[in-house]
Amino acid sequence: MSGGDPVLVNVPLLDAVAEPPPHARVRALKKHLIGALRDLRVAKRPDKLIQTPTREPTGFTATVLAAGCATCQGHCCMGGGEHAYIDERTMARVRSDHPGLPEGAVIRLFLDRIAPLSYRASCLFHGPEGCTLGRGLRAELCNAYYCNGLRDFLKLGPVSGPVRIVAARDGRERRSPVLRPGEFNDPA
Ligand code: SF4
Ligand code: SF4
What we know:
By secondary structure, this protein is an alpha+beta fold. 35% of the residues lie in helices and 13% in strands. It is built from six helices and seven strands.
């Protein structure tokens, strides 16, 4: 696919207020992380819990996907609450990536990455600049997830023409600049 009018990629739109993380929510996240580590401790084969990592997109595809999430501002992350989808499988990977790190330090790894401002009632790692957790600590579900609009874009295969993101919900709309392969595009 190439040239002409931009391909429109339709994604949801989040219009929420960012706030400092409430203490009660941080405590709930910490409790959840302790539980995930406990579940890992009692697992018979912790190594078997590690999920196959999702391949990171590259090139123009990565630009469009990043612009999609930046324009949407993270509608799907609202479900992350005080758990961020982290469970014993995530912990198995993190412990394998950081051998010898005590459990308290593993929890600290996560708590240190809580967004200074996150969208109200959303995942505590969901800041105005995106996810503050990073792929290495994220649940594999987060690393692998694309909403319907981004999945439809991926189904198109390699796109060599311009693309534009349209984020819309309840009559409100936000559009990205036109993204062109080979050009620097700031999706913000
Ligand atoms: S995957 Fe879709 S819903 Fe989630 S942040 Fe990106 S564009 Fe928004
Ligand atoms: S960990 Fe990151 S990607 Fe996952 S729900 Fe939270 S903000 Fe979204």
